[in-house]
Amino acid sequence: MLNKTAFTRWFFIIVSIAIICLILWNTFVFFNQLKDDERNKMKVWAAAQEELQKLSTSENAVSETASVVIQSNNTTPMLSYSHEADSYIERNISENKINTKKKRQELIDQFTSEYKPIEVYYNDELFQTIYYGNSPLINKLKYYPAVLIVVMLLTFLALYLFYQTSKSAQQNRLWAGMAKETAHQIGTPLSSLVGWTEILKEENVNQEYVVEIEKDVDRLQTITERFSKIGSVPKLEKTDLVAETQASFDYLKRRTSKLIQFELDIPNEPVPVMLNPQLLGWTIENLVKNGIDAMRGKGTITISIEKNTKKAYVRITDTGKGISKRNYKKVFTPGYTTKRRGWGLGLSLAKRIIETYHNGKIHVLNSTPGKGTTIELVLRLEN
């Protein structure tokens, strides 16, 4: 059974298609009627031509009537061929269309494909052949169905894009609400853990254990802050990119399997950029975890920082399975994943953090299937 929304959508589509078909059918009928009228008008014009040949000078009144009929046709393009004089007379045709024999013959062929030529006889002999084509009105009407279809398709496209945008906005609000609720739910047990940590400090407990617990509690607080920032514009502050990258590197190295080798290549001097430290750390963490997944838990992760006069570049390289070139942009699409249990949110979230919140760029710098991938973050330097 279709739900109400799906039923309404299909009803609208079917009705729209029916209306388009009805308009096209009526246009087709009207077009054929105009062509019939055009041919009848040309038959009258041809009859007037024949009549002029039959009239004597004593029948001037009728001759003038026939002349009026001939002169009244100022819309239909035509070529009249006189068999006796072996010459052409044109009406309602620009000179540049018949200024050569080739162009004239092409025009005759075009007219013949549109209408059957009319033959005029005098004394049982073929006196004149009239070639004629569509009037400007009919030519405009001929393209009307195509224009109508294009307009309707553009309308459908606009409605589809509006629907997709509206749906995406609703999903974004839903995800933002869920993230903030997650942060709120984590906050309660986290406060309790802080209290228990203080108690453990006063007990006869190995203080090294307490220090490690405090580190994880701090990490949970950082994660809570990250989730609480989703859906709102984060505050950016001038921060040393090298120090923040070093902090993320140290944390990930301590919390990752010994099968993963970490390498760090960073400048000795500070690299100041406008950023939010929690969100940058989240981005690096997502990229490193993606790299570890691509290496199936064994390989080398390299984090490097370079800069020029205007930009800072953070590059994260893994030795995993790589990405095919056609998927360079697709990997940042929400929901795209090659993992069986993945949600496809890590790279899309990184793209949102870097490009939307930090006005930077993130892209696949290079990747070789079976050898590894390098993803690059580009941020603006602050002096």
Output the keywords:
383 residues, alpha+beta, Heat Shock Protein 90, 3 domains, 5-stranded mixed β-sheet, 4-stranded antiparallel β-sheet, 9 helices
Written account of the structure:
By secondary structure, the protein is of the alpha+beta class. It has 3 domains: 139 residues, no CATH class; 49 residues; 147 residues, Histidine kinase-like ATPase, C-terminal domain (Heat Shock Protein 90, 2-Layer Sandwich). Helix content is 55%, strand content 19%. A 5-stranded mixed beta sheet has the order 6-8-9-11-10. Strands 2-1-4-3 form a 4-stranded antiparallel beta sheet, sandwiched between helices. Helix 1 runs antiparallel to helix 5 and helix 5 runs antiparallel to helix 6. The longest helix is centred in the middle third of the chain and has 59 residues. It is elongated. About 2% of the residues have low confidence.
Summarize the entry for a quick read.
The protein has 9 helices and 11 strands. With 383 residues, it is an alpha+beta fold.
Q: What is the terminal-to-terminal distance? A: 62 Å
Number of helices: 9
Question: Strand sequence of the main sheet, in spatial order?
Answer: 6-8-9-11-10
Note the run of SSEs as H and E: HHEEHEEHHHEHEEHEEHEE
Could you say which overall geometry the principal axes of the C-alpha atoms support?
elongated
Which oligomeric form is depicted? single chain
Number of domains: 3
Any low-confidence stretches, pLDDT <50, length ≥5? 56-62
**CATH homologous superfamily descriptor of the largest domain:** Histidine kinase-like ATPase, C-terminal domain
Q: Main beta sheet, described?
A: 5 strands, mixed
Specify the helix fraction band. Answer: 55-70%
Estimate what percentage of residues fall within beta strands. Answer: 15-25%
Number of strands: 11
Classified by CATH, the class of the largest domain is Alpha Beta
Query: What is the radius of gyration computed over CA atoms, rounded to a whole number of angstroms?
Result: 40 Å
What is the CATH topology assignment of the largest domain? Heat Shock Protein 90
Nearest-integer average pLDDT: 79
Structural class: alpha+beta
**How does CATH name the architecture of the largest domain?**
2-Layer Sandwich
